[in-house]
Amino acid sequence: MENTFEPESNSVEPIEPATAPETAAFVPRTNLSGLSRHAEAIRGELSKVIVGQHDLAELLLTAVLADGHVLLEGVPGVAKTLTAKLLARTLAVPFSRLQFTPDLMPSDVLGTAVFRPNTSEFEFRPGPIFASIVLIDEINRAPAKTQSALFEVMEERQITQDGTRYPMADPFVVLATQNPIEQEGTYRLPEAQLDRFLFKLHVGYPTQEEEVAILQGHHAGLGSTALEQVQAVLTAADLRELRQQVQRQHVEPQLLEYIARLVGQTRAHKSLYLGASPRASLALLNGAKALAALRGRDFVTPEDVQYLAPHVLRHRILLTPEREMEGQAADDVVKQIVQQIEVPR
């Protein structure tokens, strides 16, 4: 028995040094240490105020790295606006906030031309949309006329006023919050606008332990002072460099086909009245690249795509009336599609 065991042990030993050089050569392909360091710094600043919500923080960072807009949905009082404000504070870029109301006009968002008597000319005065991080609070409380003002700027990063093009700063990210559609005084967002959001994230209630921690913090008088402690840890130049790293993430060809099959299945599913557009495929690809980088990998896996699929697709698909009457949700259909499509190996 000893003679048969020793040759097997010796035959295994040379394999480890043979595979080690491949791993060592693979790791430096993209150095993600800087990205990980910045991401941890942002998480640390958010944790000064926000209790829990680790998945939400990761998804928000994913969207920022993927150069995408985010729609946060949840009942009032679950810190949607606070989280967006704190994320903006960790970035050393211009920030503005808009409170959407039923009487808000497009010019209140984009800006307007002002007549100057001394020059007898009109001068364009930029609106609050001209910032790098734009927080739109309760976006679904404004009517469709105001929502249409966001179509061009969210997609093309520019506005056109009186035939003149005004580009946005780089970076440009819209973080919008909304209450559930069942809440009184809200409007349904147009499908064309929803499609411009990279993610739609559901913000739920905290756990009992997290809510106790929130109460303890406020009881200790840390409610307002903690906001001032959040510092900027990332500049616009840093963010542009990190986004370039994300774009260089490795993606296997079969994974691109997997993304196309997932999105394509939404257009043929019997429970869906409207499927996702090719913009959803791009969102899945860009989001998966950023998520993989945040998790310390320079390559995308099918698990990255599966994890992001509900956040990318839930606001881009419409259920048939029959399925809505049955109480089915968009996330249920996305889960079915993910389970049906064969995972590449």
Automatic annotation (TrEMBL):
Skewed-composition ranges (Polar residues): 1-12
Domain annotation AAA+ ATPase: ranges: 66-207
InterPro entries: AAA+_ATPase (IPR003593), ATPase_AAA-3 (IPR011703), CbbQ/NirQ/NorQ/GpvN (IPR050764), ChlI/MoxR_AAA_lid (IPR041628), P-loop_NTPase (IPR027417)
Tree of life domain: Bacteria
Keywords: ATP-binding, Nucleotide-binding
Keyword match Nucleotide-binding: yes
Annotated Pfam families: AAA_3 (PF07726), AAA_lid_2 (PF17863)
Gene Ontology molecular functions: ATP binding; ATP hydrolysis activity
Annotated segments matching region Disordered: 1-22
Family classification: Belongs to the MoxR family.
Protein name per UniProt: MoxR-like ATPase
Originating organism: Hymenobacter chitinivorans DSM 11115
